[in-house]
Design a protein that fits this description.
heterodimer, A: alpha/beta, Amidase signature (AS) enzymes, 2 domains, 11-stranded mixed β-sheet, B: 482 residues, Arc Repressor Mutant, subunit A, 3 domains, 9-stranded mixed β-sheet, 15 helices
């Protein structure tokens, strides 16, 4: 079974029609996993588990059930809890952690017949995208193995190891890695997908998103995952729209805004700059109006996001103390046990980051840094809301650069990481944002980011479909070609 | 140094009567097998920490705040207090730091008939910690410690007074009144012995009224009203001693040692002084619309202060009686029910305060567990009032009622205890007694009025206590003087 040229909807239709196809599907997934081992995409992948899942699905199909994601291979970032796989957050701290429950998202996906094939590599607990904090090593980019994928989730979709990948996006991790790997991804409005069973990192920004290869697949996946959940107090109360059935490209009038300051980041690569400019021309040629607008605070977003996420992570990760689960260092006293356990099990990058969080939430700096960042967040939110009242979309590159070399020297503190230049603002404001794959002249993937009004993922999906329509299908690297 | 004034502020923690914990569905029942009432949320397991706020606990806290005359916050928000300790599963406690549920209230205490208001600085809702059991004396010297998380996450309210308390006695009166109020509104059983009510005291002394506050110490480990009283008294003496000798009070936490009757400086826990409080990003603010607060207010019954005033005004009771009878809602209700059957407020008060409470205390029962129904006590009082039985007989009848729950009329009839008020019957007995006691008659005639008492006693003896003592007195006097 060739999973490279099939959409999720097609696969479900085929499998539902003939459950005998589940066997070749599962064999292909296993082959792809074996071929891609060097890429370090997976943290957990178990053939036996996959066979159990396909057998269980075959039985359901035989009973006449018609689940909407039947047979679709999906992967989860390893901070989404599963009873059937360890959930490590790519940290040594949780290398042995097996949650006694599955995330609400996992329950929904299983109920809808998706095959959860494995758990993917990520930055430790969700710490950015620069590729040096995972206990399991860097997830390599399927396009060029010496570059980082940013996340195993996006890489899995890029190599067809999965048609759908679910991963968290705090400041932009999922969108950035999708951009690095040349796939689509959407981070829905904050609260759209339940965080129940997702390991808390930076609660007020973190949102589960999904990566896929087509807009239709993205819509299907989002529809399956979204919706209110009483177990998550930050979950949106409103029912999620039926994205898949609302999807149509339309030819209607669209007004898009581009922040005037879009090219004012030191990290902007020429390739990405040229690519974005030519994309804008194409978009205009499609009849979409594009204006440059002044967004005074847009550039302040990365720092505010770093401060807020550091404080939240510092607190959220305080349960990793070696008392009830996780790594426990050998020590003579309780205090020493905390120090040893956390020193040994956290990466140096994470330690610096949560140390920074502890610093900016201390009585001395609370007002000066944390409160100031929260105020900035409000300004950014207001500014974007005002802009989106006038415009249907906001357009930016997704990242200022194509996938960086693995083990590169990105800001160790993660504070002024230029990777977050475009993705931080919608994350702070809780807005939905979608990244659409484009290519630089060097043939490397980059991303076009579409930011929409809160609650209106549909508009983004429709715009994405419209972009998709006029183009040749997405390119993907050959597995095992590097 | 002569007019030194004691200044005390109390911090009282009270466990609420909810059946489930503050942020999860685990039971709050006291005394269960260790770690049998726990779940991923109250254990702080990664992926399980999302809190689901217990609405009932919020309503109880608002009710308590209203009963303590506090202003209610317009928005309920929760904050995290971050510190590491083995009994704190998440590494932070969810509490209300920036905006407590209630502020600016007061409690009235009765100081020798004078009403004094003790200010309530704030009342807020928070979660309890687990409980540590050390193999040795404390965490530092023990080979190991064990922890029970059954209590972790149990809803607690913390009530912080203004430094308005001026003596150990005022502290005791305040706590009694506070307990009384919280029991009236039925949100906690407030048992200090079981830990459902805990009290820390901030104690300082200053040169004179109105002068600057002295350095304070915080007293912990006081497990009864009596130990609060004794602890404060000891601490005031100790501080005065230090100051008189020209020393300085060291601001510190001190441990009340009940067996030795002293306070000792406590070794500090591994608790950072800087709790890095910040708003909990997982708990969105909850509005408290006026209609909601109003609805909760309607549930509050007449509270001890006003009920006591009403007892004085309506029933003409002395303040002391009113105070005693309104200590608990059950007792006050009982009293008023008795009045419905026999409206003699002072007699009812006397009988309840002296006889009934004595029997209840001896049996260790609460008034609502009493077998004597208010109607039965009313009947008994009526029989006394109508001189059907004497007070002395009534006491034995009451004891029997208390033991069996039998109707007083039935007991009196069955045992033939009806009082003899019939003059001719009494005259006959009196004549016989006078004949048999010529010595006493002579004594009386010679002015020894004491002899009268002896003769009354003899008449009572003859009648088995059933003679109407007043009548006996009158008739005897008539005979002797006439």
């Amino acid at each position: 079974m060739n999973l490279r040229d099939i959409t999720a909807a097609e696969l479900t239709a085929q499998v539902t029609n003939d459950s005998g196809l589940l066997k070749p599907v599962s064999e292909s997934l296993y082959d792809l996993h074996e071929k891609g081992r060097d890429l370090n995409v997976f943290i957990s992948f178990d053939k036996q588990h996959l066979e159990q899942e396909t057998a269980a699905l075959a039985a359901r199909l035989a009973r006449g059930e018609r689940p909407s994601l039947a047979g679709i291979p999906a992967v989860l970032a390893d901070n989404i809890c599963t009873v059937f796989y360890p959930t490590t957050c790519a940290s040594k701290m949780l290398a042995e952690y097996r949650p006694p429950f599955s995330a609400r998202l996992v329950e929904s996906l299983q109920q809808k017949g998706a095959l959860i094939t494995g758990k993917t590599n990520m930055e430790e607990f969700g710490l950015g995208c620069s590729g040096n904090s995972s206990h399991y090593g860097v997830a390599k980019n399927p396009w060029e193995a010496e570059r980082t994928a940013g996340s195993g989730a996006a890489a899995a979709v890029s190599t067809s190891s999965a048609l759908l990948a679910f991963a968290t996006d705090t400041v932009g991790e999922l969108r950035q890695s999708a951009s690095f790997c040349g796939v689509l991804a959407i981070r829905p409005s904050y609260g759209r997908i339940s965080r129940s069973g997702v390991i808390d990192y930076a609660s007020s920004m973190e949102q589960v998103g999904v990566a896929a290869r087509t807009t239709t697949d993205l819509a299907l996946a989002l529809e399956a995952a979204a919706g209110p959940d009483p177990r998550d107090p930050t979950s949106l109360k409103a029912e999620a729209p039926p994205y898949a059935s609302l999807l149509e490209s339309g030819e209607g009038k669209l007004k898009a805004a581009v922040p005037e300051s879009w090219d004012r980041t030191s990290g902007l690569e020429d390739g990405v700059k040229d690519c974005f400019q030519s994309e804008l021309e194409q978009i205009k040629a499609m009849g979409i109006e594009v204006d440059f607008v002044e967004l005074k605070h847009f550039r302040e977003a990365p720092l505010a996001a770093a401060v807020i996420s550091a404080v939240e992570a510092f607190s959220n990760l305080a349960n990793m103390d070696g008392v009830r689960f996780g790594c426990r260092g050998s020590a003579a006293s309780l205090q020493e046990m905390y120090t040893v356990s956390r020193s040994e099990a956290f990466s140096s990058k994470l330690k610096k980051f949560i140390g920074f969080g502890a610093l900016v939430s201390s009585e001395k700096y609370y007002r000066k840094h944390f409160l100031k960042s929260q105020r900035m967040r409000t300004r950014i939110k207001d500014e974007l809301a005002a802009c989106l009242e006038e415009y249907d979309l906001l357009l930016t590159p997704t990242t200022p650069f194509a996938a960086p070399l693995a083990g590169g020297s990105l800001d160790a503190f993660h504070l002024l990481d230029p990777a977050n230049f475009y993705t931080a603002a919608p994350a702070l404001a809780g807005l939905p944002a979608l990244t659409f794959p484009v290519y630089t002249d060097d043939g490397l993937p980059a991303g076009l980011q579409l930011i929409g009004e809160t609650g209106d993922e549909t508009a983004l999906l429709r715009a994405s479909l419209r972009l998709e329509k006029g183009r040749s299908p997405l390119k993907f690297p050959e597995p095992g070609s590097m | 140094m002569q007019n030194m004034e004691t200044v005390v502020g109390l911090e009282v923690h009270v466990e609420l009567f909810t059946t489930t914990k503050l942020f999860c569905g685990c039971s709050t029942a006291f005394g269960a097998e260790p770690n049998s009432q726990v779940c991923p949320t109250c254990l702080g397991l990664p992926g399980g920490t999302l809190p689901r706020l217990n609405q009932r606990a919020v309503e109880y806290t608002i009710e308590a705040a209203l009963a303590l005359n506090c202003r209610i916050a317009e928005k309920i928000t929760f904050d995290r207090k971050n510190y590491f300790y083995a009994d704190l599963p998440k590494g932070y406690q969810i509490s209300q730091f920036f905006s407590p549920m209630g502020t600016g209230g007061y409690v009235e205490i009765n100081l020798d008939g004078k009403i004094k208001k003790i200010g309530i600085h704030q009342i807020h809702l928070e979660e309890d910690t687990g409980k540590l059991f050390h193999a040795g004396d404390d965490i530092l010297t023990s080979a190991y410690s064990r922890v029970d998380f059954n209590r972790a996450g149990v809803p607690l309210i913390e009530i912080v007074t203004e430094p308005d308390i001026r003596s150990a006695e005022e502290a005791r009166l305040f706590l009694q009144r506070l307990r009384s109020i919280l029991r009236y509104i039925d949100i906690s059983d407030c048992k200090m012995e079981e830990g459902s009510m805990r009290c820390d005291a901030n104690v300082s002394i200053r040169a004179a009224e109105g002068s600057a506050l002295g350095d304070k110490t915080e007293l912990k480990n006081m497990n009864s009203f009596r130990s609060v009283y004794k602890g404060i008294e000891y601490e005031v003496e100790r501080q005065s001693g230090v100051l008189k000798e020209g020393g300085k009070v060291i601001p510190e936490t001190r441990h009340w040692d009940e067996s030795k009757g002293i306070t000792t400086a406590m070794r500090s826990k591994f608790v950072s002084a800087d709790y890095r409080c910040f708003p909990d990003p997982n708990l969105p603010p909850l509005e408290t619309p006026a209609e909601w607060v109003e609805k909760i207010k309607e549930k509050i019954p007449e509270l001890p202060s006003s009920r006591s005033r009403r007892f004085i005004d309506d029933y003409g009771l002395p303040p002391y009686d009113a105070e005693v009878l309104t200590v608990s809602r059950g007792l006050a209700d009982y009293y008023e029910s008795v009045l419905r059957y026999h409206r003699d407020p002072k007699a009812a008060s006397n009988w309840i305060m002296s006889e009934l409470l004595r029997l209840l205390n001896a049996a260790g029962l609460e008034v609502d567990e009493c077998k004597i129904q208010p109607e039965a006590l009313g009947k008994l009082l009526k029989m006394i009032g109508d001189e059907v039985i004497s007070g002395k007989i009534a006491k034995t009848v009451l004891e029997e009622m208390f033991a069996s729950g039998e109707d007083p009329e039935a007991i009196v009839e069955r045992k033939g205890l009806v009082q003899i008020s019939d003059e001719s019957a009494l005259e006959e007995i009196i004549s016989r007694v006078l004949e048999n006691n010529p010595k006493s008659v002579e004594d009386y005639n010679q002015g020894k009025k004491k002899a009268m008492g002896f003769l009354v006693g003899q008449v009572m003896k003859e009648t088995g206590g059933k003679a109407n003592p007043q009548k006996v007195n009158e008739l005897l006097k008539e005979k002797l003087d006439g």
